[in-house]
Amino acid sequence: MNASTSALVAPETGIAGDVAVEMSAWARFLASERRSSPLTVEAYCRDVRQFLHFLGPDAGLARLGALRPADIRAFMAHKRAKGCGSRSIMRALASLRSFARHLEREGKAKLAPFNGVRAPKIQRTLPKPLALDAAVKVTSGHAIVSEATEPWVSARDAAVLSLLYGAGLRISEALGVRRRDITPDVDVLTIMGKGQKTRLAPLIAPVKAAIAEYIRLCPYTLAPEGPLFVGVKGGRLSPRIIQLAVERMRGALGLPDSATPHALRHSFATHLLARGGDLRAIQELLGHVSLSTTQIYTAVDATRLMDAWKSAHPRAKSTQV
Asked: 170 an active-site residue?
């Protein structure tokens, strides 16, 4: 376990010693066996730490071994009262169940108290893709250029956004691309997605051109094993920088608040589907484990078609067809 993971369960957090030992082992398991990202491990440990503090000072393994479903429901109600939404509560419950499974494997506690607790229902909202012309404008270098921005920075932002829309990448996946992954003859990227699962992402000509322009203008020597996209000081580029770039473009292009870097990934899927793309192929391109996750875009496309019909058909507002 690295130093950052160890810090999550350090003695100064007020966690009982026997639980801290088990949390350390659990964090190692998540990072190595489950191959969870550092951010996921951090979030899971934070959820468990909050639960332990809720149970009382220095709640140890004996207290965890005597848990009842009512204790868990009380914690969920406590988080709700603190303003946490259903998604946060559901993630906290998943964290606690994962830790309980670890304790059960070690013979330190039982998972049974969690079996009688239902996760909160989450209202599934439809993704909000950009219109086709808006997506093209956002990924255009012309929309990003300003007098205060150096040309290479504008080219970098355009290249990142082109990857999000042109290949359907998450922003973390785009910023995880290494310099050696991009060569003139490469037409497909191997992407490491959620859960350390790999998939192939085709590089279309406009995306390759945007990346080539960025590399040409970038003032830094990009190490082969280092990140392709770097910040103004030459270090790894932060996702927040790209988010801010899109926020600035929203005002200039008259786009809604839903126009975000991740909305470009939604746009990639929705526009492919609208052009007759195969749902299974789109699932593979997005890296979705379940087809049901990808199917939500069929509802987006149906909504778009109905909106177009209502605005364009002469009988749409009539009571008679």
From this structure: yes
Domains identified in the chain, total number: 2
Confirm whether 288 is a catalytic residue: yes
| Residues 285-309: tens digit of each pLDDT | 888 877 777 777 776 655 554 554 4
Instruction: Kindly tell me if the per-residue pLDDT of 320 is higher than 50.
Output: no
Look at residues 189, 178, 160 and name the one whose alpha carbon lies nearest to residue 223: 178
Determine the Cα–Cα distance for residues 216 and 152; give it in Å rounded to an integer. Answer: 8
Residue 128 to residue 145: CA distance in whole angstroms: 25
Supply the pTM of this predicted model: 0.63
Q: Would you say residue 238 lies in a domain?
A: yes
Which is the catalytic residue, given 34, 63, 248, 262?
262
Q: Rank 80-84, 207-211, 283-287 by mean pLDDT and report only the highest.
A: 207-211
SS3 43: helix
Per annotation, catalytic residue among 110, 194, 208, 250: 194
Kindly state the DSSP code that residue 233 receives in the 8-state scheme. Answer: T
The pLDDT tens digits for 143-174 are 666 555 789 999 999 999 999 999 999 999 99
Q: For residue 143, how many other CB atoms are within 10 A of its CB?
A: 22
Contacts of 174 (CB under 8 A, 6+ apart): 160, 163, 164, 167, 229
Domain boundary at 115, 142, 176, which?
115
Token pair of 16, please? 């009982």
For residue 192, the surrounding DSSP H or E stretch is: strand 188-192
| 96, 245: one domain | no
Q: Which residues of 248-262 are buried (b: 16+ CB within 10 A; e: fewer)?
A: ebbeebebeeebbbb
